[in-house]
Design brief:
The chain is α+β, with helices and mostly antiparallel strands. The chain has helices at 20-26, 40-51, 70-80, 105-115, 119-137, 150-157, 190-193; strands at 62-67, 95-102, 141-145, 163-172. Helices cover 37% and strands 15% of the residues.
C-alpha cells in the first residue's frame, strides 16, 4: 500500500457521522488496550488528520514514526520514558505514534525569539489533537505521553538530530470501548477560564 499522501483520500473510510463536539467529549486517555492490531487504513486516516493541521507560516514541523513492532514499543517504554511513573501498560498498546519536531530557523528560532511564543510546540499540539480526535471517531483509544527522553526515543525510531521527539501517542482498541468521558466535575468551569471583554 502506498504511503504517498496523494493517495490517502482513496483509502477506505469508516464514517461514523460523529460530530466533532461528540468526538471531543468522548476522547479519554486510554491506558488499557486490546491486543488486536489497528488496520493500516485507519492509521493512515489519523495520520492524514494530523497532516492537515495548521502551523505557523505553514512550516509543518511535525514528523511521525509509527511503531508497531513489539520489541521497539518495549524499548520506547523501558528506555525512552523518564523514570518515576510506571507506564508498563503502554507496551500493550499495539501502536505508538512518536510525534517529532523539525524546527526551521526563521519561523521557529528567529520569530520565537522576537515574540516569545514557541511556535512548533503549538503546532505539534494542534497536529496531535487532530490525530487523537480522528482516532476517537474511529473507535480507537489514545493517550498522550510527554514523559520521555527525546534523544533516546530519537535513536530508537532512527530519526536524525534535526528531529526532536516531542510526545508519544499510544493508539489501539480500548479494552473498555464504552468508557465514559471524564465527568464535567473534573474540568474547570468556563467561568474560571474565560474573560469576556
Amino acid at each position: 500500500m502506498s504511503h504517498d499522501p496523494e493517495h490517502v483520500s482513496q483509502l477506505p473510510t469508516e464514517p461514523t457521522g460523529m460530530p466533532v463536539r461528540d468526538a471531543i467529549a468522548r476522547r479519554v486517555s486510554c491506558r488499557a488496550y486490546q491486543s488486536k492490531p489497528v488496520p493500516e487504513p485507519q492509521l493512515m486516516q489519523i495520520l492524514e488528520a494530523a497532516r492537515l493541521a495548521p502551523s505557523a507560516c505553514n512550516q509543518q514541523p511535525w514528523r511521525f514514526a509509527v511503531v508497531r513492532d513489539l520489541d521497539l514499543r518495549r524499548r520506547i517504554v523501558e528506555d525512552g520514558f523518564l523514570p518515576g511513573i510506571k507506564m508498563a501498560w503502554a507496551i500493550d498498546a499495539p501502536v505508538h505514534v512518536v510525534v517529532g519536531m523539525e524546527r526551521s530557523f526563521v519561523t521557529h528560532r528567529l520569530a520565537a525569539s522576537v515574540s516569545g511564543v514557541d511556535y512548533p510546540w503549538v503546532d505539534i499540539g494542534i497536529a496531535g489533537e487532530h490525530l487523537v480526535l480522528a482516532a476517537t471517531e474511529l473507535g480507537l483509544g489514545t493517550c498522550w505521553i510527554g514523559w520521555i527522553k527525546p534523544r533516546v526515543v530519537a535513536r530508537i525510531v532512527g530519526w536524525p538530530a534535526s528531529v526532536k521527539p516531542a510526545v508519544v501517542i499510544t493508539v489501539g482498541y480500548p479494552c473498555d470501548p464504552d468508557a465514559a468521558a471524564p465527568p464535567a466535575s473534573r474540568r474547570k468551569p468556563l467561568a474560571e477560564l474565560v474573560r469576556w471583554l
